[in-house]
């Protein structure tokens, strides 16, 4: 207790000293009162430093740890979900209990699982048993709600959907807050499969149930960036959506197009939503693959639905419309802070869709003209004719009916001519177009940022100068801080100078690389400490956040 009071007094004394120094108040400006001397307590001997914990070497293989960790947690959670589903099925077939009683028991058991998992998590810590129990309970709740509403019709669709929304929101919040892959993998994916488990068929209410779970899954993907969840959600939900579209397109074609477009947008968010929320330098392979698969399946599936309904022209127009949508998205992404690879991929998908649409829409010389125009755009945009030449060479020699492909030689000749022309024309006109569309660096914005950085550095330097007389015993620290801000000021001035030869930029890049290398070494040491069991997950996340902030500050 005495040491705590003494520390507080020292802290307050230092604060008063700092304020007096900043305000220029002299110590002798007011008469000092005579204070009787206070006897100083006898200083205590400092306690011996605590011994550092000895880190045990990481075992090469521990079967008990393997089987008692995540494996049993996942297996147990999946087994509980399967057992709940089989219980409902067996109760239905054998007529053990009435329909209402079955569903009441299912809801009660599922709620008890969720409550027990939360209690375990709060009382026993972050254990696999707690996470798997909550995940299994959420999936069972969703399946019970789907069975009660879709199979037994004991609940009205609005009430069932409200319950489904509540369960999905709880799963979303829990998975994000606890950073739990178990809840995402078992709870949310199990909810996506709930309409299939209860054999709900292709009715509209089952599609809405699945969509609510899909939105929860996508929200988790955007927040946490779990690529595996995006892929699994797509694989599980896309066939259900396709089954509904196939069943409804003959008599509700307009609604079918709206639903198909909505699912396409949802899957686009699942593919690149995390990259847009937390911009990265490169696009992940899983995100690019999901984006391409979504575009291909949506284009082919909706085209077939429209053609099957007797609207061939509308089917062809759909391909052009989908290509235009990808162009719009690519332009919006290009103007944001996201990776340029996302925009380029969206533009590439749009170009491929246009090529397919031209092939199925036009015929004869019109195909040649359209392919040539696309080759011109691709080559002029910087492809140097690689894509256009590959497409032209890939044209079949003969059609399916045995007739030769119309004007194939003319397409090759025009493509080669366009490539030669764009080697000169593109280099002269593309920079002008970029400036006109304001796609390059905004000089005014860069000037404002540099001016703001210079003002911040100047304010810090002035405050350091004021602290020299206040803290005369800490001149080495103040000297280091002043040198740091002076060096930062030099970098800002070099960035504002447009006449530099590039050496300043290279120096900044090298400095950032050095700082990143040092931070990487800290991350490696942190991961080793976690692997050796010297720290827990909470300490790991706290220190990782501090390193992330330092890395962002170093890259500024």
Description of the structure:
About 7% of the residues have low confidence. The chain contains 21 helices and no strands. The protein is flat and about 90 Å long. Helix 6 runs parallel beside helix 9.
The biggest sheet, with number of strands, parallel, antiparallel or mixed sense and barrel status, is:
none
Structural class based on helices, strands and sheet pairing:
mainly alpha
Could you tell me the radius of gyration in angstroms?
33 Å
Number of DSSP strand runs = 0
Tell me the fraction of residues in β-strands, as a range: under 5%
Distance, first to last CA = 44 Å
Helix content: over 70%
Order of helices and strands: HHHHHHHHHHHHHHHHHHHHH
> What average pLDDT do the residues reach?
75
Number of helices: 21
- Low-pLDDT runs of 5+ residues are 25-61
Q: What general outline do the C-alpha atoms trace?
A: flat
Topology readout:
Blueprint: H1 2-23, H2 63-68, H3 70-94, H4 99-124, H5 128-151, H6 157-177, H7 181-192, H8 194-197, H9 204-224, H10 227-248, H11 253-277, H12 285-308, H13 312-334, H14 340-361, H15 365-383, H16 386-393, H17 408-436, H18 443-470, H19 475-496, H20 503-531, H21 537-554
Structure keywords:
flat
Short description:
This protein has helices spanning 2-23, 63-68, 70-94, 99-124, 128-151, 157-177, 181-192, 194-197, 204-224, 227-248, 253-277, 285-308, 312-334, 340-361, 365-383, 386-393, 408-436, 443-470, 475-496, 503-531, 537-554. Helix 5 (128-151) runs parallel beside helix 7, helix 10 (227-248) runs antiparallel to helix 11 and helix 18 runs antiparallel to helix 19.
């Amino acid at each position: 207790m005495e040491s705590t009071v003494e520390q507080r007094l020292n802290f307050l004394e230092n604060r008063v000293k700092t304020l007096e120094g900043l305000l220029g108040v002299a110590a002798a400006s007011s008469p000092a009162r005579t204070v009787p001397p206070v006897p100083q307590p006898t200083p205590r001997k400092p306690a011996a430093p605590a011994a550092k914990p000895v880190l045990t070497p990481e075992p090469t293989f521990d079967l008990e740890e393997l089987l008692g960790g995540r494996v049993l947690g996942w297996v147990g959670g999946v087994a509980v979900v399967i057992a709940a589903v089989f219980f409902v099925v067996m109760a239905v077939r054998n007529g053990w209990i009435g329909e209402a009683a079955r569903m009441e028991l299912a809801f009660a058991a599922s709620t008890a699982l969720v409550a027990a998992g939360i209690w375990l998590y709060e009382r026993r810590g972050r254990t696999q048993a707690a996470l798997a129990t909550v995940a299994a309970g959420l999936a069972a709740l969703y399946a019970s709600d789907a069975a009660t509403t879709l199979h037994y019709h004991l609940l009205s669709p609005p009430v069932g959907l409200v319950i489904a929304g509540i369960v999905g929101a709880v799963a979303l919040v829990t998975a994000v807050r606890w950073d739990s892959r178990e809840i995402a993998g078992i709870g949310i994916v199990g909810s996506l499969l709930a309409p299939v488990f209860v054999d709900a068929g292709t009715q509209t209410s089952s599609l809405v149930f699945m969509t609510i779970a899909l939105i929860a899954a996508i929200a988790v993907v955007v927040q946490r960036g779990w690529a595996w969840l995006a892929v699994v959600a797509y694989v599980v939900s896309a066939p259900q959506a396709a089954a509904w579209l196939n069943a409804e397109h003959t008599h509700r074609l307009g609604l079918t197009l709206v639903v198909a477009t909505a699912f396409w947008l949802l899957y686009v968010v699942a593919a690149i939503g995390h990259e847009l929320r937390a911009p990265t330098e490169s696009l992940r392979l899983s995100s690019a693959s999901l984006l391409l698969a979504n575009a291909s399946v949506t284009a082919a599936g909706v085209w077939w639905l429209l053609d099957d309904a007797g609207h061939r022209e509308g089917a062809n127009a759909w391909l052009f419309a989908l290509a235009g949508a990808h162009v719009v998205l690519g332009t919006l992404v290009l103007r944001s802070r996201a990776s340029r690879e996302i925009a380029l991929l969206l533009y590439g998908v749009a170009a491929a869709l246009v090529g397919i649409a031209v092939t199925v829409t036009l015929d004869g010389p019109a195909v040649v003209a359209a392919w040539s125009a696309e080759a011109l755009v691709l080559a002029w945009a910087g492809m140097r004719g690689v894509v256009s030449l590959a497409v032209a060479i890939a044209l079949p020699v003969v059609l399916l009916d045995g007739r030769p492909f119309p004007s194939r030689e003319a397409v090759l000749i025009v493509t080669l001519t366009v490539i030669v022309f764009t080697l000169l024309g593109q280099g002269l006109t593309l920079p002008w177009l970029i400036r006109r569309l304001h796609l390059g660096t905004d000089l005014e914005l860069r000037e404002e940022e540099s001016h703001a950085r210079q003002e911040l550095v100047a304010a810090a330097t002035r405050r350091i100068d004021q602290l020299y007389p206040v803290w005369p015993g800490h001149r080495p620290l103040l000297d280091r801080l002043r040198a740091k801000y002076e060096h930062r000021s030099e970098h800002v001035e070099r960035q504002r100078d447009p006449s530099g030869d590039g050496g300043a930029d290279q120096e900044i890049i090298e400095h950032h690389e050095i700082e990143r290398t040092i931070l990487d070494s800290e991350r490696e040491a942190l991961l080793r400490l976690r692997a050796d069991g010297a720290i827990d997950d909470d300490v790991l996340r706290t220190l990782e956040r501090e390193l992330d902030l330092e890395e962002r500050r170093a890259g500024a």
